[in-house]
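Standup notes
- DV: blocked on the single-chain target, sequence here:
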Amino acid sequence: MGNLFSAINRLSLVLLVVGATLISVSYSAFITSFRPPVSFEALLEGQAVKPGSHVAGNVVSAFPPFASQTTYTKYKNGSRSTERASGSFYVIPTDKGFIGLKTNEDQVVAMDQLVEETLRYSEEGGTPPTKKVYIEGEVLPMEPKLVKYYKEYLKESGFSAAEIKAMGEPLVIQYTVFRNVQLMVAGGIIVILAGIGLIVRRYKQLSAEESAGDNVVS
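- DV (later): unblocked, structure below
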């Protein structure tokens, strides 16, 4: 047992921690990636989703975003970089109400075009939205701060508190590149195996040295 603990050095410990971190931050989306996807058409037809559901397909219609997201880099001296837009939270109609949709910034222009078509169709009729925006993502519970903005948006759109409550738990479809998630988990497993390999190698080396020492004494 003493050799086992001695075999764990800083490098092997770092590898184990890094590998476990890669897996833990991607675990939920990794599991979701293997679930059958639900299309946006199915959401309008009554298909229910819950946290952990897999949604994929062309967005059928969308209403204006209720929030946007920005990111920045914080430097060691305490200063930070200029904020950069990193996506928006749109409102997507479903059979039972609405669900949020978090896009990345590259999809905002196309989504805004779809929003324009959706509003024009809902107000004037005529041709349904034709803009195609493919989104794949994981359904997650909406963060409390977002819930506040989301409910304010619905109230301003004319929905009562009772109607909003009847829509159920606020959820959001988080845009996700599942291929990247799978690669990250695979990378985490490889890093953990590398750490274990170092420990096993060192353990065998220490055990061999201890055995050689015992033979010399005898």
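- Follow-up: The chain has a mean pLDDT of 88.
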